[in-house]
Amino acid sequence: VSRQLKEEIRRGFARLEDPLAGLLAMLESSSDWKGKGHSLGYCITMELQLWIKEHPAVPQSGTKLKKLQARVLGMLSQCPANLLDPLISIYQLHTADRNYLLEHVSHLYLQGDYKEAAILSIKLKLQPDQDVEKMCTPLLLQDKANLVEDYVGEHPELQSKLLQTLDTWCDPSFNIRDITRPYQGLSRYKPEKFNRRVLSKLVFRLLERFNVDPALCPNVINQRHLRTLNYLFYKRFVEKSMTEENWADHIQSTVGDNRWLQGQLVQALLCHCDARGAARWARHCRVPPEMLPRALAEELQQLHLQDRVEEVTKADNYEDSKKKDYYQLPIPRENIHFLQTWEKMLQCWEKVLQPGQVVGVDMEWKPSFGMVGKPCVTLLQLALKEEVFLLDLPQLLEQAEAEGEKEKLPHFIQMLYSDAAITKLGYGMSGDLSSLAATCSALKDTEKQMQGVVDLLAVDKQVDGLSPEHSHKERGARQPEKGLSRLVQHVLGKPLDKTEQLSNWEKRPLREEQILYAASDAYCLLEIYERLCKDPESFGLGSDLTKILVGKQSKKPRTKKQLNKQEAPSPSGQECQGPRTEPSQPPLLISPREFRVVCDNMLQGLGRYLRCLGVDVRLLDNEDDHRKAAEIARQEGRVILTSGLPYQTLRSQVGEGRCFSVNCSEKAKEQALQVLKHFNVQVSLGDIFSRCQ
């Protein structure tokens, strides 16, 4: 708003006998104030709010104010959101008669203006005097869950009532149509968004957001546990990818003493096992005998110890046979160290934090199977060339806190991740670091500060697989490999044995199988990295692989110097430096209209952002091959914007300086600034939105 207009508005207020009544008269007769954005009515309202603060004698009281409040209440349901707070403040609606306000909101509700009634209730803090189920039901039917969250946001008692209501609706015996029937003619009603599955997800979101005890929602929790139970039976009896001991651990912790879940367990056992097997597992999971069918109860009485002996023998034979099928650790067992004390931890510290060191990093936690809260890391694995360290995080954190030095472990981890001279190898690092931050709040900024990291997840999609005839060799009917196991198979010849992946990693002591699995998961990263760096072409990768692997995952903005020089530690820790062209003189600035680019399909957000700034942009579709970018660039004289490994392929197909690698971990705005700076593009005000969007 111009200074001249502000002064004119204020002079107008000074001339009015009653500025509050004057503003209302203007808003009631104006047509532009109901639109979006900053209308003239909005500007005048904001100036009056400021003017009143400077003139305390202006606000009114008594009958005159009540009449003004009645008029403004009638406008609030129609006015833009940005005018609600100023009008409520100017006309002191928080001091109005509460019953009168409730009656007005009730009138809006009966008219079918459910959203407006809820927003006004929130602004006027009326929720404690309202029926939470009545207010929130139509909002949920209209898929306005965010507004429901805001409605109960500051009221713990309403949060509990809402959660109990939602949990009742999630009871399998409850007829959801009883809820929807009164709202058949509801506008914007979305029945596909109102079912037990969607409501269950909402309950879990609210439980986590408001930190409410899950015991308040037994139906939703039981249904989630039942899905976990079905999943565990699938993993053990259909996919056959979970060991008996792992399976038993998770079944016991899932079912516990819950009678309903025990009944579901018995039904599942009868479907997947013979009578003897079902009885044995029922006994193992402590299912009360009175819950078993008569035939199963009789079988339970006849069980003998011999069953257990036979099962153990089968397991031993299985362990011997599978070694030839899976990746095996190349280091001796005595070089795997399980660390639970700070004395041993210091020895690890000295070896890991060495300049030039290459470290394979992995983490384990107990599977949550979709329950409330983020998982907490219970084991941190650090693999060096000759040995692997397994850090018992709960024990180390507890010991450090007891000694009054709880920052010791976070300090070590931050030093490791922020040291550019140490190469850290991972697979899906972002998820690991998110769980690490949930475990220890002091580590929440680790991802922003990390340097010298290589996330092999980014490489995985670019590696050419083995030929089909090798992919199932000696594997029988086992499921196809996924994730890191698939990459290990492609690069090292054999997959990882993932049977311990879903272990209970909180339970101590860890079993020998868990220790070997955890060590293998971290150590295989070293071997993959070394093999890819030594011979990238045989896996379909560019010859200068090491120049693009490091630093792509860091969210830290890169300096101008770093943008002109791509660098990465090699497996030995030395830097591999790419060619660098120094311009003899500063290049001339160009306008966005002269700058023509083609954006690879992983950079569609960047392309749209550059188009907003006036740049001539062509976007590849999701299904397009990366090589199409080179074809368009040659035909139309465009610069290719791409990222990661496609950069290596595309830059050789166009002229020098006509292909640019963008940091994919940054947001579109930061990417755009990086591109504009590199190509000396200067954006003026006239360029913004100069092209059709």
From TrEMBL:
Chain positions covered by the region annotation Disordered: 465-484, 552-588
Gene from which the chain derives: Exd3
Origin species: Orthonyx spaldingii
InterPro entries: 3'-5'_exonuclease_dom (IPR002562), Exonuclease_MUT-7-like (IPR052408), Mut-7_DEDDy_dom (IPR037432), Mut7-C_RNAse_dom (IPR002782), RNaseH-like_sf (IPR012337), RNaseH_sf (IPR036397)
Lineage of the species this protein comes from: Eukaryota, Metazoa, Chordata, Craniata, Vertebrata
Domain 3'-5' exonuclease: start-end pairs: 336-537
Stretches with biased composition (Basic residues): 553-563
Bias kind Polar residues: ranges: 565-575
BP-aspect Gene Ontology terms: nucleobase-containing compound metabolic process
The name this protein goes by in its record: MUT7 Exonuclease
